[in-house]
Amino acid sequence: MPLKLDPNLSDPDGAYDLLIAAHDGLDKAQSDALNARLILILANHIGDLDILSEALQAARAAG
Amino acid sequence: MTSTGNAVQANYDLAFDLYPYARVADQDACVRHPVVVVGGGPVGLTLALDLGRRGTPVVVLDDHAGPGQGSKAICFAKRTLDIAHRLGAAAPMMDKGIVWSRGRVFHGDGQLFQFDLQPEPGDRHPAFINLQQPYFEQAMVKAIRREQAAGAPIEIRGGNRVTGLEVRDDHARLEVDTPDGPYSLEADYLIACDGARSPLRKMMGLGFDGRVFEDNFLIADVRMSADFPTERWFWFQPPFKDSGQSALLHKQPDDVWRIDFQLGSDIVREVELQDDRVRARVDAMLSSQTGEVPAYDLVWTSIYRFQCRRMRQFRHGPVFFAGDSAHQVSPFGARGANSGVQDAENLAWKLDLVVKGKAGQPLLDSYHTERAFAADENILNSSRSTDFMTPKTDASRLFRDAVLDLAGRYAFARPLVNSGRLSVPCVYEAHHGFGPDDFDGPVKTRPGSACCDGPLGNGFLLDALTDGFTVLTLGQANLSVPGLAHLHIERPTAEVAARFLGDAPGAVYLIRPDHHILARWAETTPDAVLAAVARATGQEGFHAPEA
Ligand SMILES: Cc1cc2nc3c(=O)[nH]c(=O)nc-3n(C[C@H](O)[C@H](O)[C@H](O)COP(=O)(O)OP(=O)(O)OC[C@H]3O[C@@H](n4cnc5c(N)ncnc54)[C@H](O)[C@@H]3O)c2cc1C
Predict the structure, then answer these.
(1) Which of B159, B265, B348, B484 shows a CA-CA span of 20 to 30 A to B525?
(2) ipTM over 0.95
(3) Please, what CATH class does the domain formed by B430-536 belong to?
(4) Which residues form the FAD-binding domain (chain B) (predicted)?
């Protein structure tokens, strides 16, 4: 299964809101740490190294 | 000729006097030997024992009379024990060594998780044992003495320091210092097992490629008779004072514990080695779980720096480099001596065949190809461990800490915690000379991998393999090949079937003298098996186009 780069979220605004709200009250260091934990949790959920590496490339390319 | 003048002064105190200097006739005339090994560490000794048992004459030169006091290596892995067993040297190691199974990982004040290493069912040896390196070397020398008594052409010359080297196309000439003065000798093949600082490597002007880690590790071996659990404890960011980035506590035989503090790069060696400073750290660690400092003695302390690097080429004409002289890794994962012993066994059968004229030079070239590949794998693994323990960038520290924060709570993050990955033999995947893999069998036994063990009758499968090429047939496949040893297992045990057959009714395996699997087939012919042997040994037919 290739990496999905077409819209896939059923509620984009709701999802975005969740991501932002999770950082409420956190300082920069705490936010960074939260993001790192989140990435690890999602990476484990994906499981597949090919998809992970495609996702990393996509993320780097857009920056 | 170069001579130190100050002949053969010891650089360190000995743990055991195993091969004291004795004058030999060679010292009066320059004699040519088929194989000379420089260095009687774990690697040189393994090589000499393996070669001698095969009947190829070998002379070992070492500038001391035995291993130094204080143990460097303490963890010896299953593969090393299997090799030592094949060479008849494992019994004293297993008698003396300590088997541990429980490990605990701490982060700061708290325990993140614990794990239990289960032995593979049906294997003779555990994943590894803890044993001081001098005992390992002592057991090797004991086996060598036994083989010598039975006529094996092995000679160990202690107190022989190599001081000069000339390399020709087809031999090397050595200058050697002894208490009776210098002499010269020649070798068709010279194997440099002379350790990380390899004087031979320097004499040849050869260097290393790779990374040097700036971290300093304080090693303290302490003896305590207190009832302390036989477990491996590893701390990330230990809470005790001044203890650095990580710390490790590990049991050895003789009531000795290995303690390791990662001190970082900015230290003054002499200060950190002062007894009271060492003791302050050790006290804090040992009391961290119970609040009490048990009585202990400091047996040995030292500060090390580690590097992850290797020589570009392990073979230079008639000269081969093996063990620490060829490659170095950080100690996490115990890959130094363990991989060096595998170098030795990779080289021994190849040299033996070539010296006896049964195989050509390409077989010796495959030593570099295979063992440099293995060294790269070891370097990769130990660099990854080191980077996890000492993150080098902000991002890497962020992820490292995130893994540690998650690991206490969620099982998924525990495999990401890297305090050293256990040394396992590398698979010579897709290497020239291996194959074919004409069997849709288990991954574990694919060509290139080290043959795994399993129960066989009242014993073990590995014991039934020979020191030469072995055809192993299982289940419905049964094929004997003229000139090759044959082991047939009609009704394999569940473990053996799972490892070698999977769901298939039968299979044919061809196993090399170093017990790596060379090829396998669902079914095949004697000619195909012989062709695989010929290809592996660089023989006739090697260049013939394959049908
Ligand atoms: C603190 C520490 C912990 C370690 N832990 C582990 C572990 O748990 N597991 C593991 O597998 N590895 C471990 N290692 C690595 C292991 O100790 C080495 O990889 C191993 O000793 C290498 O063996 P060797 O035979 O290549 O070299 P060495 O053991 O260094 O032997 C070289 C020999 O050559 C001799 N020599 C040198 N120059 C000359 C000369 N000019 N003439 C004649 N003789 C000479 C020396 O005297 C010596 O006897 C550890 C290392 C350290 C420092």
Answers:
(1) B348
(2) yes
(3) alpha beta
(4) 34-377
